[in-house]
User: Fold this.
Amino acid sequence: MSGDPGHLPNLGGTEPGGPPARLPRQRCGTTPQMRGRYPDYDVLAETSHWDEPTRRVVLDRVERVPPIRFFDEAEAATLGAFCDVVLAQDSEPRVPVLAMVDEKLFDRRGEGYRHSDMPSDQDTWREVARMLDAAAAKAGAESFAAAEREAQLRIVGRFAEGELPWEGCPVDKAWGVAMRDVLSAFYSHPWAWNEIGFGGPAYPRGYARLGPGQREHWESPPEFDLDPVRDISERGLE
Amino acid sequence: MKARLARGLKGSVMPEGNDSARLLDPRHPSAPRPEGMRRYPEAEAVDMLVVGCGAGGATLAQRLARRGWRVVVLEAGPFWDPDRDWVSDEAGSRNLYWTEPRVIGGNDPVELGKNNSGRGVGGSMVHFAGFAPRFHPSDFEVRSRDGVAADWPISYEELRPPYERIEHELPVAGEHWPWGDPHGYPHSPHPVGGGALRMIEGAERCGIEMRVGPVAIANGSFGNRPHCIYRGLCLQGCKVGAKGSPLVTHVPDALAHGIEIRAECMATRVEVDETGRAVGVTYFHEGEEHFQAAAAVAVAGYSIETPRLLLHSTSSRFPNGLANGNDLVGRGVMVQGAPQVAGRFPEELRMYKAPPPEICSEQFYETDEERGFARGFSIQTVGPLPIGWAEHVLADGHWGQALREYMRDYNHWYVIGALNELLPRAENRVTLAEETDSNGMPVARMDYSQCDNDRANIAFGKERMREVVRAAGAQDVLEIDRYAHLVGGCPMSETPESGVVDSDQRVWEVPNLFVADGSVMPTQGSANPALTIMALASRLAERLALKRSGEPAARRPRRLRRGSRPAPTGVDAG
Assistant:
């Protein structure tokens, strides 16, 4: 079963040829792109066991997707494509990450710090959009959103390595600011919890089965049977 | 003796001199309600005005209230109602953190906010993991022993009684502790999850001893506080009321003894009169400026906000800020190195279950010359939730499909972290930035850079953790560099030239102004600071009571204008 770690990127799996083959389709509830390791697990089936303020906060992420108010149309197109690339959200259903980031910036919700050599988070995000579009233009595309997938991956790769030219402030810190918001949005979403088998809110019920390999009665086993040797050869990664 | 024995036979021993756990409403055990709280007029000088209702401020207020002092506490954040305000959710808990603007700089800038900064009644302990270790005796004499940093003007022996007292009040659960000054804990250790079991085995194979605890979580019900439910969201505020924070450990008793907590009140200046005595504090509440008169003031805003307040409290007598005559306020601010090493295991470990603080080793706490650097580190468990785990995966260099795959693998991972003692450096400092907040007060800027000793300590700690994780059978390993905790910035010292406060935490330059938080620590050890901050505040209260002449001040109201001088009530320790 999933005891074999050969699917992990450090051990030769996954990148860059997409998700591991044989990753099951989700059979219950929703995951981003409807794949996941826990095809019969839906954390949203447990909401009756959550306290009301928590239930409201989590369900709002699913039921109340905010409109784009902070970014303009061009920025939203560029940054929406950026969010898709850094999270490998290559098809529907997608967690609406850009809308969640936009709302945070629109509401001016801070993180409690700003690097002395960086602009505000709001201005940083706008700069990221400009920088991505400039890099795409250099590669001959009309915009980052319009660039080929391969070109987008190359540009984001250079961004992640701190190699994109950016006047005035450190590009590695911009990567940190943007990814902090992206990851916080994506992994706060219950669809992402379904994908990774996270138990989610646990008040007032709590957890009782803490030992290795133990599950609560409502948690579900993983289903992922992958022979890494075969997988790598099947995907032509050797 | 008989009473103590009888209490012992009934299970949890309740602490003496603090009824907080019994005062909580059993239907809402995660916080007291402020209804019926005593109120004090602003113009009447209270005996002690405390700024900040966290580990230091709340403990000090409770102790003084017990002795009949009239105490007001100003708290910048809200008075929490956990049933309504807190959620069992990672991203939804951002209100617990100090998310007001601050600026960070230096070669190794320290991210603030959720990592280390609280706001609201209960302070950062509302969202601390729960580890509550003592400092070691060696921490108080680092300069003498190791030739680095500074000695404290007090010894471990002076903190042992308040340590023991606070451990009973939180209460702390853990195995008998073999390191530092060996000691036991009032509550037996909690059960640990599968990941911690793995790490205990791995450490053993490396010759490293681990112990369960010490955590500020009652093992069993405690007064009206219920048992822990092992839901793993300790860093998001304990809705259960099982984890100790001042909100449940000291505020209920303090309220019962007549303190007033003024929530959502942001202190902007400590005011002094022409003789250099503090006369009260100017603060903002809902955009309005107020002034509370006081016979004495204790600042407990922690290592960023305390220096900020003192630096902003300029006057003709103190043009560079209060207590800053030697240009030392804000200097020596410290964080601990907190690198994490994650290991991947064949079976599911589901590290979101059980409190993140599970086991700890202080085997590497003391200096070992063979390592090539001074001081050391401790090893603890971390247990990140999905967003925290995603940040860990990103820091190891993964995004896109690789990130998603490591995330899908979440349930197979377990994470341990080090707390490295990084040394205080004068150039690491809190100052005022040009940017101002909504009250027009300059925001804090924190500059931080490591020294060679710090880098060597962190690298060595990571190497030991990699060994533990590998020996535990990890199939893959991911790492992240980060920081934890904040202390220092207003160090206590033997002489007025070498620090900001004396051994009684009294500001050298102002006879009735005290600092009652972690900023007074000259060094930080490799221990989580909460217990020591509380123990220091508890000791400070004892010292104040000893030095105070006679009973509480007369109750007659005094008419005071802002800046006028209150009648002395004999609080200054001079």
